[in-house]
Design goal:
heterodimer, A: alpha+beta, three-stranded antiparallel sheet, 21% helix, B: mainly alpha
Amino acid sequence: MGLLDTKDMKKGSGTVGGVAVSTVTVPRLKRHDTARDVGFSLKELGRGMKLTLGYFARPKTVVTSQYPENRDTLKLAERFRASLKLKYDDKGWHNCTGCGICERICPNNSIILTTRKGEVTGKKELDRYVWRMDSCTFCNSCVVACPFDALEMGPEFENAVYDRRLLIYTLNRYAGPAAKVLAKHEPEQHAAMMEPRDRFGGDTPLNGVAMPKVEPLKKANHNNEGDAS
Amino acid sequence: MNFVHILASAGGPGPKTFKVLTVADRALEAVNTNLWMTALYLLLAVLAVAGLIAFLGMSLIYMERKVAGHFQCRLGPMRVGPHGIFQTVADTVKLLLKEDIIPRDADQLMHLVAPFLSLTATVLVLMIIPYSPTLQIVDLNIGVLFVTAITGFGVLGILLGGWASNNKWSLLGGMRAGAQIISYEISATLAIMVMVLFSGTLSLSGIVQSQEAGWWIWRAPVVGLVGFILFLIASVAEINRTPFDIPEGESELTGGFNTEYSGMRFAFFFLAEFINIFTVAAITVTLFLGGWMPLHIGDFAGFNHAMDIIPPVAWFLGKTFVIIFIIMWLRWTFPRLRVDQLMHLEWKIMLPIGFANLLLGAVLVLFNFYFFP
């Protein structure tokens, strides 16, 4: 079947076996003549050469960054994803309620959430938000899934360490309820509601691995209530 | 014919004559007086060619990487030395120190010989290129024939390498190279033959001198330009560069004929490839762009004298590097052709044009119809 020129399509009617049917007449697409083909090809080759010469002649078009020399002036894309972070407002409160949707949606089980019963509120609140960078693929699913807009991806990408246990972070700075709940309580109660958490404290799931000068960690038990460190 | 005569009378001041004196001539002269001088000249020639190879290898590879980088909005090598000028040196050291792996089932001798054959063919061409009236190793009176023969010899190394590696990719690459180079050699030779017709000599130095009144690319009406374009395309195909790099075709053949080569043997293939760019550009310049002849425009005596001040070697190298740049430009712009497209281009398009060009050239020469005869 040759190429059909749909532009000059004509509708009509005819009879097939005595039955009236509507027909469509479509002419064959005319082949370009050789001269036109050659001319077109040469023109396009010239266009390509002009484009590359333009890049060559204008060094401004170079997109390469001279990392690490340009570390101070390094510009990263807004959507650059290199580390998972909890969002904190200006009071230092986060929005995480400990619902665990991110934990369930994570394809690599890189997020391990532990929750506890709040002493003041008596309700479930975040105890420890553990993020395993060593198994994270930075797929952004957790950020997208979070119904409380508590998570974000940051551009901090220089994360290399010598011990992979150092890639297991606790993301929350305090164990306690989310900003919404804190706002409902009196300021003097806040101290009692918030218990500080450090970046590398607590159990990490990478337990029992002995390395030189590094003690094996305690066996992880994420159903533990309270701070295990 | 009047037109031509008017042009001829308008053509240029009294031509500056260049006396050609090759290293071989000097050595021959010295034979009668001092044998040591002969030996010295020969040694000098060998060292000069070796030095030229080293210099060209380094500079062309660096140039290629920089040019490629900027064509692709990159910077190219930037780390080793200022703007990466020592990158090639570092790479050479790396290649020297690398283990030389020979596949167990490879044909040991042929595997060893192939890269040397490839490089030898290239080096032999360097020998007869006229760099300047006084800078040429030897001026063969059958120079053009020599060039055609020797460049065909280079494919032998590639074929041998492809065969001896005992590897599918290598064999396919070698065979493709054979088919491609043999095909395009025809077009290249047809284009060269036109220039031989016009200049009436086979010696490369003689061809350069025949362009004193004007370079053949425009002095031979139409034929020169067509021949130039044909020769350039055929040459790019002969040296296996993109858009005609199907013998290597990384995405298809993982490197083609040099898949099984590593270390210094690979470096030899690589070096031959880059020196080939130079020789091809140099031959193009010699045949079509007046070799070391300075640019003269008709009656502008002042301009012509200013052009004469620039030494012939600079003219030669300048023109050569312009051609090299064009070859690199082609490489980093065009995609690779398919095998059948490659053969179609040669046998159905370039070959007829080449023959027509040769015929037209013969007629023009017969009737002396070219500018500044």
